[in-house]
Amino acid sequence: MPQLDFNLLLTLDVLLAEQNVARAARRLQLSPSAMSRALARLRETTGDPLLVRAGRGLVPTPRALELRERIGPLVQDIDAVLRPLKALKLGELARTFTLRSSDGFVENFGAALIERVAREAPGVRLCFLPKPDKASTPLREGAVDLETGVLGATMGPEIRTQALFRDHWVGVVREGHPLAQLDSVSTGRFAQARHIGISRRGEVGGPVDEALASLGLQRNVVATVGGFMAALAIARSTDLVACVPDRHTQNLRSGLHSFALTFPVPPLTIALFWHPRFQADPAHLWMRQVVLETCGER
């Protein structure tokens, strides 16, 4: 089957409306000869003369009259598809946004996000999913609209990124813990304490351990859990020390004692990720702005 030229749809629509080659050419800003060539192509494509001479004018054939009833809506639909999207009406938006985030993000920011979305777009629903790994496959496949976390080497190169906030590590113990009585916890005292390790894969290590290793020290990790919530729950009812990002876990540390680390640990940047297929989507752009303004640094 020969490839169709969809520009001929617009040409046919104008020709059938004007029933005059010269006037149709002026409307489409073409020369009369170019319009005559287009009419010849339309006749060849449809197998019908479409417009025939009647005195000094042209009249449509029965086939042209049939096409005129169908071509108008087609041209309008194509025009609507190719035009820029209309302004987003949040009050009429009905859509579900799926956000994948690491442990603690929903507990810390979820309520504020839900409240903001409900206020601006009541028809929008949020679906929060856990983030067991850093693979970008859910974003690529469209299963996830947005993702938060620390940029990793496994993130696809095409994934768009927007920094949300910088965070730093703090030590956390229960109220009444011996370290909670100190004005400042020395690096040596910190390393000697009994610690909870945090690793999705059960491995001991991380930025805090690397910083201590550069000083010739090592934490005494007696248990390892998969996330911040579990680490804080254990710290709440034992004498173990948890190390967590400060802002990322702010709401989770209520009733616990947090203290600054007295040795330098590189900060971490929590970022927002999305696939470029949604880059220009107005609703997605609004959702990204909501996350940025609700969770980002002020």
The radius of gyration is 32 Å
What fraction strand?
15-25%
Mean pLDDT: 88
Sheet bearing the most strands, described? 5 strands, mixed
Overall form: rod-shaped
The helix/strand series, from N terminus to C terminus, equals: HHHEEHEHEHEEEHEHEHEEEH
Count of DSSP H/I helices: 10
Helix content: 25-40%
User: How far is it from the N-terminal to the C-terminal residue, by CA?
Assistant: 59 Å
**Structural class by secondary-structure content:** alpha/beta
Cross-sheet strand order for the largest sheet: 4-3-5-12-6
Q: Low-confidence parts lasting 5 or more residues at pLDDT below 50?
A: none
How many β-strand stretches? Answer: 12
Kindly describe this structure.
This protein has 298 residues and is an alpha/beta fold. It has helices at 7-18, 21-27, 32-46, 62-82, 105-120, 137-141, 187-192, 207-213, 228-237, 282-295, and strands at 51-54, 57-60, 95-101, 124-130, 146-150, 160-167, 169-174, 194-198, 220-225, 241-245, 256-260, 268-274. A five-stranded mixed beta sheet has the order 4-3-5-12-6, with helices on one face. A five-stranded mixed beta sheet has the order 9-8-10-7-11, covered by helices on one side. The protein is rod-shaped.
